[in-house]
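Data availability (excerpt). The following record was deposited with the supplementary files.
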Amino acid sequence: MRTADGKPFELTESLEDYLEAIKHLIDEHGHAHTSEIARLMKVKMPSVTNALGVLCRHGYLNYDSNYPVTLTKKGLVAAERVIGRHQILTVFLKNVLSLPEVEAGETACRLEHVMDDRLIARLNALNDFFADEANRAMLRQRFE
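Predicted structure:
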């Protein structure tokens, strides 16, 4: 699907955050209501309604104000991609760079939207390498 100016539609950072929040709510509570999305994202209801409308028009979710929001297959794939990137980055920042967990999570949230797939894959390979305690110990010595 294309935008009004004829360009291919691309998810923005904000829309990716909505998909991530919706997936989280569905996983936690079995449903995602607009009020829950607004509360989790700390935004007002009109912002949620607008974002859900855009995501619905582009096939990422099903939205009817009388029912919980559901992700389409396309929306689920996109949400899982963002969540996976977030997890890879959080592990890297926490376990490899020794950042505190909260800082690692907050930083990962900012980076997950701007890093390309190739870099994420390489960071994941480093995560695997440093999952070995001997390799992690060697790295820790360099940071002390």
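Summary of structural features: DSSP finds seven helices and two strands in the chain.
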